[in-house]
Specification:
CATH architecture of the largest domain: Alpha-Beta Complex
Largest sheet: 7 strands, mixed
Number of strands: 13
CATH class of the largest domain: Alpha Beta
Order of helices and strands: HEEEHEHEEEHHEHEHEHEEE
Number of domains: 2
Strand order of the largest sheet: 8-10-7-11-9-12-13
Length: about 350
């Protein structure tokens, strides 16, 4: 069933009140007349406190379960909004763990005074992203906080997926000489959100890369069954997940500065603002480690997918300097790429 295109007439021009979170008639009407029609599916329809899922969906594999919360400011930006982020982020957390995403929950924390038109657009964005990823939103919860106690909308999404039998990834699978690949340009999401903030008079032609990556990941496993490790490069960017891998796996990682894909507008904005694109958030980018012998086949499969057209190899696993990440500069020297103490940009996802 397709979601409604417009907010029902009786809700137009109205805002969230404390009654919408009080558990009574107002809350019931909000859920049954506004939320449920957008997410409509058989598992959600009963509106019970849980969704009943047939274990046969695992098809002999392992259950994967994840959760995440989203507090981005502003709510909407070029290329996405908080609703799209909530779905894509949770789908991607499942996918890079080797799982096929199946079901999501949606927990809404709404601020008193939020226009219902805004909520409706966020919900529709979630539904569109869920349809892209072929997942269903099957259960949820709604809470309302007083005016000034939140920032319009916070979203928590939990996700369930199935890991096919025999599929195993992680730092323990990695070997020296393996290659590190990414599926495209870095830092787009971070700069898109930054540009949308009113206090910065920036005109930057960059859109968020937010996208569900599960289809790309399935193509990657088909092309390179021995994929060693995957991670989506969200908060903290590629630099952070590279350091997490190096420290967890006990290997060194050498990145090639010339190979790292960054759009010119992103690079220019970083130079103006003193930011490093390797630490900027992404919402549709992943990094993967693959045996050198399967690297070209993997890249070919990624480039054949709409979300991997700019895929490239950007680094190599090495035994030297275990636990450290270095970048080989265009001049041949190396610099250490360390973890940041905090975030370059707050409230980015």
């Amino acid at each position: 069933m397709s979601p409604p295109e417009t907010l029902p007439a009786r809700w137009q021009g109205k805002t969230i009140t404390l009654a919408h979170g009080a558990g009574g008639r107002a809350m019931r009407e909000l859920i049954t007349e506004l939320v449920r029609p957008v997410f409509e599916n058989p598992l959600l329809a009963p509106l019970e406190d849980q969704a009943r899922i047939d274990p046969a969906v695992l098809d002999g594999g392992q259950l994967a379960f994840t959760t995440d919360s989203y507090v981005v400011s502003p709510l909407a930006f070029a290329g996405g909004d908080i609703g799209r982020l909530a779905v894509c982020g949770t789908v991607n957390d499942l996918a890079v763990g080797g799982a096929r995403p199946l079901y999501l929950s949606c927990g809404l924390i709404l601020e008193e005074g939020l226009p219902l038109e805004t909520l409706f657009e966020v919900l529709r964005s979630m539904r569109r992203a869920a349809d892209e990823a072929s997942v269903s939103i099957v259960t949820g919860d709604t809470k309302v906080v007083g005016r000034g106690s939140g920032d319009q909308v916070f979203i928590n999404t939990a996700g369930i997926g199935a890991i096919p039998p025999g599929r195993a990834t992680g730092p323990a699978q990695v070997r020296a000489g393996d290659r590190l690949v990414v599926n495209g340009t870095l830092g787009d999401h971070g700069i898109a959100v930054l540009a949308a903030r009113n206090e910065l008079a920036l005109q930057i032609p960059v859109e968020s890369d937010s996208a569900p990556l599960n289809g790309l990941v399935e193509a990657m496993f088909a092309a390179a069954p021995q994929l060693r490790w995957l991670r989506d490069a969200t908060r903290g960017g590629l630099a952070t997940i590279a350091n997490e891998f190096a420290q967890e796996g006990g290997f060194g990682l050498l990145l090639d500065e010339l190979a790292l894909p960054v759009r010119d507008p992103v690079r220019g904005a970083c130079e103006i603002l003193g930011l490093d694109p390797l630490y900027l958030a992404n919402e549709g980018k992943l990094a993967a480690i693959v045996p050198a012998a399967q690297c070209e086949a993997l890249l070919a499969a990624m480039r054949a997918h709409p979300l991997g057209r700019e895929a490239c190899a950007v680094g190599e696993v090495r035994e030297a300097s275990p636990g450290r990440v270095a970048v080989r500069s265009r001049f041949g020297g190396e610099r250490i790429l360390d973890l940041l103490l905090g975030e370059q940009l707050p409230r980015i996802c």
